[in-house]
Design a protein that fits this description.
6-stranded parallel β-sheet; homotetramer; 25% strand
Amino acid sequence: MKLYEIREPKGVNSLVPVEKDVPKPGPGEVLIRVHAVSLNYRDLLIAQGRYGRALKLPLIPMSDGAGEIVETGPGVTRVKRGDRVAGIFMQGWLSGDVTPHAASTALGGAVDGMLAEYVVLRQDGVVVVPSHLSYEEAAALPCAAVTAWNALTTWTLKPGINVLVQGTGGVSIFALQFARLAGARVIVTSSSDQKLRKAAEMGAAGLINYQAVPSWDQKAIELTSGMGVDHIIEVGGPGTLGRSMNAVRVGGRISVIGLLTGPEGVVNPMPILGKQIQVQGIFVGSRDMFDAMNRAIALHQLRPVIDRVFSFGEASDALRYLESRAHFGKVVIAV
Amino acid sequence: MKLYEIREPKGVNSLVPVEKDVPKPGPGEVLIRVHAVSLNYRDLLIAQGRYGRALKLPLIPMSDGAGEIVETGPGVTRVKRGDRVAGIFMQGWLSGDVTPHAASTALGGAVDGMLAEYVVLRQDGVVVVPSHLSYEEAAALPCAAVTAWNALTTWTLKPGINVLVQGTGGVSIFALQFARLAGARVIVTSSSDQKLRKAAEMGAAGLINYQAVPSWDQKAIELTSGMGVDHIIEVGGPGTLGRSMNAVRVGGRISVIGLLTGPEGVVNPMPILGKQIQVQGIFVGSRDMFDAMNRAIALHQLRPVIDRVFSFGEASDALRYLESRAHFGKVVIAV
Amino acid sequence: MKLYEIREPKGVNSLVPVEKDVPKPGPGEVLIRVHAVSLNYRDLLIAQGRYGRALKLPLIPMSDGAGEIVETGPGVTRVKRGDRVAGIFMQGWLSGDVTPHAASTALGGAVDGMLAEYVVLRQDGVVVVPSHLSYEEAAALPCAAVTAWNALTTWTLKPGINVLVQGTGGVSIFALQFARLAGARVIVTSSSDQKLRKAAEMGAAGLINYQAVPSWDQKAIELTSGMGVDHIIEVGGPGTLGRSMNAVRVGGRISVIGLLTGPEGVVNPMPILGKQIQVQGIFVGSRDMFDAMNRAIALHQLRPVIDRVFSFGEASDALRYLESRAHFGKVVIAV
Amino acid sequence: MKLYEIREPKGVNSLVPVEKDVPKPGPGEVLIRVHAVSLNYRDLLIAQGRYGRALKLPLIPMSDGAGEIVETGPGVTRVKRGDRVAGIFMQGWLSGDVTPHAASTALGGAVDGMLAEYVVLRQDGVVVVPSHLSYEEAAALPCAAVTAWNALTTWTLKPGINVLVQGTGGVSIFALQFARLAGARVIVTSSSDQKLRKAAEMGAAGLINYQAVPSWDQKAIELTSGMGVDHIIEVGGPGTLGRSMNAVRVGGRISVIGLLTGPEGVVNPMPILGKQIQVQGIFVGSRDMFDAMNRAIALHQLRPVIDRVFSFGEASDALRYLESRAHFGKVVIAV
């Protein structure tokens, strides 16, 4: 079978094509024929050697993939041959609160990931995906969608609240979709009027071009009648958190889920006290969250937004495209 | 001005028309020209002398009304002349958890209500209503809608969950609307196929005629793929709670909000333990909940379902109509 | 090795002594030399054939045991040889919310239990016990202590609240201890002044002899200055729930954890609505709860209250003693 | 009557003694004979003109005071003449979540405070204090104690968790006391071994002298067996938040309640994401929280730690003493 490895993280050209034997599932394990893999910004950081956590090397990269179970090891009862499944991001976070252990089981980082024709996972480490989704769509879920779901549903999510999502990457577009499902009003920021128009078509009620309006925090306050935003899905990191703390309402929440502006910046934290803000770090989520999200996706026949699908041979091009930030929604590799 | 009083609760004919001077608002009070009043099952129980709580007598009945502020007393700052407002059900429950005191401030029961051309309330006891609503629609909110909102939003309300609402009275139809706004899947029970069809038009995904299918609990389990319902809005009381405990899922919730089957029955509580159910009594809600609900109603331009509007002179007919249980949604009196 | 089996549940004499080979731990499993087993009221119901859930038959009874890991199967990493452990009540409830599956993994009921010299459990199904506890004390924890912990800590547990515990059985005494650790004020009911004196020595602030004062609900209201109890640990079931609903405060909680008065009774549920009570069924708890509880037990060097220790050969006597309800705290069998 | 005013905030010498007539309580108001006032770090910032919020000028300073109700205006029902009360910090935050309005009602800042022989407050703006407390002790509660209570009780507060409090000022010592009441294990940091010894006498289990051990975050991790602290009461602000983010466990919480290191610093927020931390700003709390806290204080006969009591004429000395940071617990002015 074919797969890619990162042996030395040196940028978008780090992916090395490799041939290996198809692995065998052991007790409690399943063999998955991977049909699609989706990319996250984390995959880019890993390829660039800029990801702040310990990596397995050489590493089969990419955390998010979906495929069909083609063989089950002894003692497998949760799933069966033929099931259409996705791997869960942290193989060891099934339920309840996050633990230090969970992060050491993240696919495509601490352990091998999904950019291969076949992978073996523990039966506990997969979820059955909604039947109306293609493999490309299902592959979009494990990191970005679960992150958005976790951020939104573990805090006050009542119809009528204002949610602001930054940009139009994978997490942000899922957050837009889920917040809309839940009856929230969504404000989207982007540097592109074209992307904002797409967001509007998906139901965004407030649109801010942060290049045209660099003080987007002030604009967000205006768009909420001066009250401030209830919940901000913060993907920028240090470079945007300061404005997010301005834009959020007294007693509101900022879910810190990404660091697109890089990990090096600093911010004055005093608004946290002054406005009694809750700033909550969100790192994907548990299998239980994934399952609950799938119920919502299935009920509403919601479809992930796929920006572009690359072939397996174009994996490096896919990374490069992600790096360009031209995308709206998810970038996918068909396997 | 005209108003109605209950001097002796003896049934639907207890309403006595009375003429009085228009009252004057004192410090911190507002004078409201009432334009519409809506009826709740509680108003029927009060007229029948079957309501289990202490009543002021003689009593201006009915808790729910909307109108225009036509005069403000000294020191009024929260609202102003011309504001379109509704009274809050418990004048003393503004925020936070319920207190024993709150129940002693319920309009149309412990204190005078809204069935009058003019009423005086404390400025703290009103909320501004969404501008797209007529007075008839706004009058539908204080008891039924806030009850449904409280029941739904103080528990896990995530897109994709299953909510069952019993019947098609005021609370149930609001619960259907709010649960839909929040992305839930809603199952409705009724004794009328016609009402079920209307519920389906409003987005109900599961329909059960409990006369045709008396074991509606079994049907509800089927409609949730054997899992059971996540959240049941229980309006029947002792007569239906047993089946609700069957229909709810392991770890699910039953919000007990009404007693349409009468207060006298009994039930075996063991499924509460066996299935680790949460049974939660809900008695309307706070002003904060009302305000949060209004934001959702305004955002989604949601309209309360008004079954029928009676004139002020037909107040007793309105009560009689409510007693007949022919309605779908709210019964209103234009003042 | 020696063990007991129930082949036919026919009362306290159902325990059949059996000799078997010591089992071998498979992949991910551990072999435990059991040193002590504790009894719960559930074990009595199971022996009597009155337990409402499906039983494995023949069954090694009793859910609660502690011992030493003497051998580990392949792939065991969570624990090691020599660890002093207890089994968790539901082998399949590790974290997060309860699931329907969890109940089908309960030791000494759905699957074989701990009344044996050796047992094999999955590595996921054990917790390391606090080092200051003897095996007799550690064996007291899995069902009764975790139940009390779950009931108390999944609701508002602030210093200064009033908690009422019914009786002086295993769960109730643990609830007394944990509520005291958390700064609550505890009221205990019992039919024995002697037991009430013991409870007072353990820090109970309110004592009610419900034989001398059958209307213990009224007494509980008096003992809380007329406010009612914040949280009632309800072990009686249908026969006591009615009074608990009287005794609890407006907005308070009743944790339904047992059915000592038998499963057959009925109750009028209307106070749930009238007082906006939360009635929550509690069936033991997850491994995460067990671990969190162990931290508290270790920090405070808390010791379970052991009423009496029987020898392995006296297992039936232990059951009979439990049936007599003479105990205060836990009844234990040394293995 | 005598009082102090700040006319121009220019440091610890800004307090101007003034003579005025005793005010009269209007409708719904009460006249309080103030017996004691306590100081908070905020009072120092206000006197120095460094407090970041809008001030009323001239201003009667200091938010925290206790005294006796000597006269009630018309319509007062919540309290009566002779009641021993304290003012609540934000006169407009009674219940529920904080609102933007609440901060504009803070005593001794947005509105006149308590450093006067007599003050008039709304009946809603006072709480009856526990009867075992002296006025000096009761005056210590409104800001510091409620802040500590809010920070601790609005998050997971289970026996056995680790809480770290920074320093030995008013909030920190109350947090130590309340965390102990709730069964937590408390770690205290200080620059003084003498103060640490006092903290140990009050039950602190971990002691860190941050001058001797500047990397107190590493020490805190060691003191929690490598796991990290569950909950940090952060009073330092930007200058200490970075180390707090190191010291807290994965999934833990930092309650940001003060800025003793000054408001100007910056911090890299990435650990919030990396460790899924919750950083929550806490600005005192509601009247409901004050009442709940008083129940706990009364039950446990807990006594605030008063470092030193100054006379009314020594008000500026009291401020100066607070500035010196020599105190352990609260600094009080007897009126």
